[in-house]
């Protein structure tokens, strides 16, 4: 064998490893993109503000409600977008963020970093949603779901206010809510990108975050 030449078999092995590595990277990127752009199930919210809900807006104002999972990392972006909505709302909306508190969860389980983040947004009131009762009333199944009711109690918007999971920035959902608050035309629905609200059981048991 001539000096300086790499044996044929090692070159072949390296080529195969290179192909496998590229395939793994491409597959990982594809899976991540698919995950980021996979929305939660389409919700069926009530056409009017549920009469048995404890939430009400002041006369003449919109009522905005976000249903959230306190352990969902995607929800941080939803709260950032909510902060932008409230900054542009001009005092026309009363906003509430309801954090799921599963049955049998320890006291204060829901009052983590996301709770503190939501509580710091001007014009937003934060509540616990014990057992997900309010989420069921509003038909929400995915963290970050927003419902907007006008002063007459009619549903004007239902959906998310981010463009994908954990993605901050301009998007059709947030734009729709802001347009409706300005008494302009806006789309009535937008996909919700976030963790399933029902994924609470493993967290209470000490499992990983959703």
TrEMBL record:
The chain crosses the membrane at residues 12-33. Keywords: Membrane, Transmembrane, Transmembrane helix. It comes from the Bacteria. InterPro entries: Thioredoxin-like_sf (IPR036249). This is RedB protein.
């Amino acid at each position: 064998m001539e000096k300086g030449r790499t044996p044929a078999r090692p070159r072949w092995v390296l080529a195969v490893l290179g192909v496998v590595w590229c395939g793994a990277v491409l597959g990982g990127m594809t899976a991540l993109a698919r995950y980021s752009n996979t929305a939660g199930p389409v919700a069926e919210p009530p056409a009017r503000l549920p009469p048995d809900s404890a939430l009400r807006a002041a006369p003449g104002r919109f009522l905005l409600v976000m249903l959230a999972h306190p352990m969902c990392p995607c929800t941080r972006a939803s709260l950032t977008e909510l902060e932008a909505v409230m900054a542009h709302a001009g005092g026309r909306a009363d906003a509430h963020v309801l954090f799921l508190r599963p049955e049998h969860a320890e006291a204060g389980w829901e009052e983590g970093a996301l709770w503190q983040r939501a509580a710091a947004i001007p014009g937003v009131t934060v509540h616990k949603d014990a057992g997900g009762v309010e989420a069921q009333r509003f038909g929400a199944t995915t963290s970050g779901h927003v419902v907007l009711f006008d002063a007459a109690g009619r549903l004007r918007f239902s959906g998310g206010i981010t463009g994908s999971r954990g993605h901050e920035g301009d998007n059709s959902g947030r734009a729709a809510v802001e347009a409706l608050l300005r008494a302009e035309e806006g789309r009535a629905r937008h996909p919700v990108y976030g963790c399933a609200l029902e994924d609470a059981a493993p967290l209470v048991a000490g499992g990983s975050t959703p």
